[in-house]
Amino acid sequence: xxxxxxxxxxxxDTLFDYIADEAxxxxxxxxxxxxxxxxxxTGIILDICSDSDVPLEKLKYIICIFREIPxxxxxxxxLLRFCSNYYHxxxxxxxxxxxxxxxxxxxxxxxxxxxxxxGFVLTEAGRKIDIATIPSRNTLKRRLWTVLQNEQLxxxxxxxxxSPRAVTILKGWLDxxxxxxxxxxxxxxxxxxxxxxxxxxxxxxxxxxxKFKQFETWLLHGITGxxxxxxYLRLIDRALKENIQTLVLIPEISLxxxxxxxxxxxxxxxxxxSLHSGLNDTERLTGWLQAQQGRADIILGTRLAVFTPAPRLxxxxxxxxxxxxxxxxxxxxxxxxxxxxxxxxxxxxxxVLGSATPSLETxxxxxxxxxxxxxxxxxxxxxxxxxxxxxxxMRSEKTADGLSARLIHAIGKCLDRQLQCLIFINRRGYAPxxxxxxxxxxxxxxxxxSRLVVHLQDKRLSCHHCGHQEYFPRACPxxxxxxxxxxxxxxxxIEEALATQFPLAxxxxxxxxxxxxxxSWQTILQAIHRQEIDILVGTQLLxxxxxxPNLALVGILGSDRSLYSTDFRAGERLFTQLMQxxxxxxxxxxxxxxxxxxxxxRHPLYQALRQHDYDVLAxxxxxxxxxxxxxxxxxxxLLRAEAHNLTRVLDFLGAAQxxxxxxxxxxxxxxxxxxxxxRLKGMERAHxxxxxxxxxKLQSFLTRWCEQLSALTAFKVRWVLDVDPIEF
Length: 728
Ligand SMILES: Nc1ncnc2c1ncn2[C@@H]1O[C@H](COP(=O)(O)OP(=O)(O)OP(=O)(O)O)[C@@H](O)[C@H]1O
Ligand SMILES: [Zn+2]
Hints:
Distance between the termini: 50 Å
CATH superfamily of the largest domain: P-loop containing nucleotide triphosphate hydrolases
Domain Helicase C-terminal: 471-628
Binding site for Zn(2+) 1: 436, 439, 476, 479
Structural class: alpha/beta
Subunit structure: Component of the replication restart primosome.
Radius of gyration: 28 Å
EC number: 5.6.2.4
Bound molecules: adenosine-5'-triphosphate, zinc ion
Protein name: Replication restart protein PriA
Mean pLDDT: 91
Helix content: 25-40%
């Protein structure tokens, strides 16, 4: 009798064996429902064999195998195996968590409600049918057929408009195999304006399409506004012609709808699914199934979409490859960008990483010849140039509530010309701290090592790490003083200051608080495009990807605090963010400018920003990293541990360090230290860093270490390995 080796969502690093009456190799990758303890759970069959380490009489029988959807392909399973090995996370959990919720439960997959098609298109067979075979007295059928032949897609709405009986007829044709359902596509009524490529864009498209059927990691290094999206569109266009699927990974959910619209408008006849965390279970399942069945041509999604099955996959694009949201920050701490590259290599297809400010890791891989780089060094729109960047030296400026006289003057001039400005301050709330001026007390979170942020509008203090909220204290809890002051500035306070300075201007704040309601972000974006807003004040939500043609001035406030951070990646992150936000100005016909309020105008980072010179800064940061022995010159892993009690955490890490010393050839072991956020949500946190110049050595060290760590249960701490960590 065959024995099935099953992946289950259980936090132990093993597969589970079950007996089945009948099963063969072809069932690998199928879902199976099995008994587990007193429960029934669903897993994925990863292997079928004839014997087991568990005595036969102890093995249980499976309950059933679900066969309504095709099995996960061997390639996808190999990707999941790699992911489990590389990130040292239990295979069963990796496999199960990569799937949509509705595939993980104990029910057969129901297709009811999953088909959100909007219409019908002719199939190959359908196109061969001669309209003359439809009797001419049957005018309705003839009319429907003509529309189908002429317009590619007949939407349900069109059909109903033609006749209430139309849908029944179409369903009949569907059963005959003449039609197939088409999922949502863009509106045909939108006229497609396909720009002529710039010289550099053409070179990039040609280089990649020349090697379309082989593995290569391309870096598309294009300045802001250089038209990277247009390059993606042309590559996808080519992919569609070759009948291959494209997977496009993008960072933030807030950008998904925009890019989706761009894609839908361009590829009106193609099937696009979008997979992001804003979907409900049914929507996610629908998209996933369409990808798995090869029915979706373009799969657009955030991090998790890297695990989407796609039998015809031939191209992967990772937009804003440096974005930290590609790295999952809890549970399985994978990097979707790195897995995308693995997947491309595995399938021997190209992967395109796009960025204006590539991560230093990627840049280093270009310098060492591992990745190939294509440059877009000028803006795509004719006559649009990168905006001049100037620093306002705040040591000698007069300010009104955080706004320098020079910035106020520039905003005023911009408003006079009826153009838009953007004021960037990457801190939401009114003020980052509530202080007592008489004794120095500051409001802190009881559960986290952080200060509470003042939110004046809802008269509350709020912790941005755990979400805790409380009312303002009436008086200082330490000395009784009644005049507490909000100290420092956040978006709300700057919004208030701008309103005082420019009472007639239409000001819109954009941060996580202001876009909390569903669709409010979309509404705001539309208002910006319709020029119903004069001044935008916002956090990094505004920095990325947006194309506001009328935006002429960008003001940057409060960026100094990241200049001298203890995190060695802080500089890289800040530079990326400022390049991105500066890049919002002057993207179309209007010219732009950027003003940075700083007390360190001579800092190399601001100098590089002024010159829009990524390379100079990147090279100097790489030189620093090399000297200091930081990535990309070494590979790191972080053992993160937490518990209610700090001593226990440190004891555990001490024990972990001791074991590590027993077999650490080629691997450097550091001492346990408290995490940057030493307390979070009531848990005390610390970590232990290990690193090596050889990825292979680090990996084999980790494999052995991980097994040993699993035996350290007596400490009762929660721990996880973070391979290639980006936050400390
Ligand atoms: N060949 C072209 N001719 C004219 N306009 C173009 C061309 N290619 C792109 N554009 C336009 O240039 C603008 C900027 O393009 P896009 O948003 O793709 O830039 P990007 O490189 O993605 O920039 P960012 O990194 O800032 O997001 C868009 O309005 C786009 O329509
Ligand atoms: Zn907190």
